[in-house]
Amino acid sequence: HENGRVNLPFGGAESPGPELNVDKEAGGGGAGDDALWMHGASTARRTAMRMPAILITFAIEMVVGFVISRYEDTLTRFPLLISFTPVISAISGNVGLQSSSIVVRSLALGLASERRFVQSARPEVKVGLCIASAMSLLVGGVAFLWYAPWPLEANGHTWRGAGAFAFTVGLGVFVSMLIASVSGTAAPLLSKRCGFDPSAMGGPMETAFQDVVGSTFLLAVSAALLGAFGDAGAGCPGGSAEGCVQACALGPGNATAATYAPACLANCLEQIASGLC
Q1: Of 55-69, 75-89, 160-174, 256-270, minimum mean pLDDT range
Q2: pLDDT tens digit string along 103-156?
Q3: What is the chain written as a DSSP string?
Q4: For 93-112, what is the mean pLDDT?
Q5: Which of 126, 241, 263, 264 holds its CA 20 to 30 A away from the CA of 54?
Q6: pLDDT at position 20, please?
Q7: How far apart are CA 63 and CA 255, in angstroms?
Q8: DSSP string, 152-204
Q9: Residues 40-88: pLDDT tens digits?
Q10: Distance, CA of 33 to CA of 26 (rounded, Å)
Q11: How far lies 123's CA from each of 14, 117, 118, in Å?
Q12: What is the greatest pairwise CA distance in the chain?
């Protein structure tokens, strides 16, 4: 490895064979040459090549944290949504990483090219669409059964609310996985097009982009759909703010006033302030 050139012998240690020269600065070669360049680089050089993608991912993921903080009320009103958030992120990330790995391998073997972007990306996007459709039905079905009122009207849940929750989760899965497939396919191609190593940049960029768009979409859709069609009082004592207050009544009182438990009313006010009721 001298002056930007990597000299690697082919063959075993006993019969080294000819050397392959890869001039990185000349800009020639494909993803296979990127692998040879990475293989011959020093530890410091490898670290320097991989750190930009990690730092960019960190910056983008901070945006995800900000987005989540803006939807605390939705997560408080529908705490079960928190249980599905890591599930959606994990399966979407896996689809994106599968697409990214397959495209990187295709680039290395010359089966795909950054100059034929659409032709190279189309097969993986089609597969991602099929997987996203299947998983949206599966995860949506699980969400429906998990949220369903067993027994009837348990925890303030209703069948209508279960349907709204399942549709919201299923839609979030579909969009998040489709975005992951597209970004996982595009990231290596764009990285290669811009002169970066697709294996070092593709995976982190796919993960960051999918988290930002997927999480934002899921929370925004959840706030809109569950706010309109979901069980707003799910988990709230009495099923709603009015029901919570009525449950605090100690007696019928008279025509103009009733007796309420102060501690119970204070709890209702806390639930209302937090958005649970």
Answers
A1: 256-270
A2: 888 887 878 777 787 888 888 899 999 999 999 999 999 999 998 877 655 566
A3: -BTTEEEEE-S-SSS---EEEEETTTT-S-HHHHHHHHHHS-HHHHHHHHHHHHHHHHHHHHHHHHHHHTTHHHHHH-THHHHHHHHHHHHHHHHHHHHHHHHHHHHHHTS--TTSHHHHHHHHHHHHHHHHHHHHHHHHHHHHHHHS-SSTTGGG--HHHHHHHHHHHHHHHHHHHHHHHHHHHHHHHHHHHTTS-HHHHHHHHHHHHHHHHHHHHHHHHHHHHHHHHS-TTTTSTTSSHHHHHHHTEEE---SS--EE-HHHHHHHHHHHHHT--
A4: 84
A5: 126
A6: 44
A7: 54
A8: TTGGG--HHHHHHHHHHHHHHHHHHHHHHHHHHHHHHHHHHHTTS-HHHHHHH
A9: 778 888 788 778 878 887 888 788 788 888 887 778 778 888 889 889 9
A10: 12
A11: 42, 11, 9
A12: 103
Average pLDDT along the chain: 76
CA atoms within 13 A on the CB side of 171: 16
